[in-house]
Amino acid sequence: MPPTRRTVLDRLAEVADSSTAAAVAVFLVGLLLWAAGGWAMVQDHDLYSGPVKFGLLCAAFAIQLTAQRRPALAFGLMVALLAGDFAFGPSLPLWIALTDVIFLAVVGGSDRLAAVVGWFAVLVTAGGAMVALVVLGVRAAMLAGLIGIALTWSPLGYARAVRASRRMADAERHAARAELAALDAERSAAVGEERRRVARDLHDTVAGHLSAVAILAEVAQKKPGDTDVLRSIRAGSLAALDEMRATIALLTAPDDRAVTARLASLDGLIDAAEAAGGSVTVRRPPDLDLPTAVEAVLTRILGEAIANATKHAPGAPLRIDVRREAGSLLLTATNPLLPGRARGEGNGVRNMVFRAESLAGTLTAGAEDGHWSVRARLPLVDR
């Protein structure tokens, strides 16, 4: 079997495995929401019996598995299921399953299907906001619109970024084979690194903002009259969209200089953390003038630290200290650990370590005396 064909099959197998895992995860989340009394998106509108809820979860699970091979059929079935559920729900687990179906439909479907999914996202977001405006008022309309963005535009944007990455990778592979067949292996490695970089950028930017939006949405439910929280939700959603556009622009740019992360871009994450009840204290030299590469890496590390603190320790103070020392930039970010909360052992910490090492720096993160601490040393060099 030719190497290129084997690579394609391996990737398809990886996508199938990850999609199956996502379907199982959504099924388990649905069970947890059911057990916790969070099945219905409108709390006083849960009209389903237990067997019906289990049947809906099984139907959504089957549709997600179908989306791996027949995305158009799966998307149609999912829309039909949501339409039937709307009169008695709407049910939150089904809308969570929709995000996975949208991603698979756009990534694995045709351009026409991707366009249909895009219009569906527009109609759901705008329609939900209009209905909420007429029935409940302006604040509810804003919240409904933001929920629509989170549930439809977030997977849609990520899937489009993956499609763009794939198309760019395919173009590079064809050009490499046309110029010199011996470069195929090297090109494939470059494509793999590009995909991992896109995943890191989306995780470090879009995911952080969307996590903050989700936390603030919970705060808005508890404080429906707090306009500051609603403004923070809107600002966080717009920031996530801007970051997504910037990442897509990076995919189509000739080099990495098309998008440069600046420390000023952290203001939205700081505002979201404070709107959720926490506080962020930043101490840094007043005349801090950093090389472009160092500022970009510092921004990504701090963004992940702020997003993790907001997600895992909402309401707790976060202290950030940035200082120079012997030709290096030292960073320390510390927040109290809350009982029962995750301790940031996922992709976020690995991404921070990777970014520090990209400048020949170091980074450690872990629990210290009841606090979660991130410590980094970055050489002050322009790479």
UniProtKB/TrEMBL annotation:
Coiled coil: 161-188
Domain (Signal transduction histidine kinase subgroup 3 dimerisation and phosphoacceptor): residue spans on this chain: 194-254
Keyword Iron among record annotations: no
Membrane-spanning intervals of the chain: 21-42, 94-110, 117-136, 142-159
GO MF term list: kinase activity
Top-level taxon of the source organism: Bacteria
EC number, UniProt record: 2.7.13.3
Protein name according to UniProt: histidine kinase
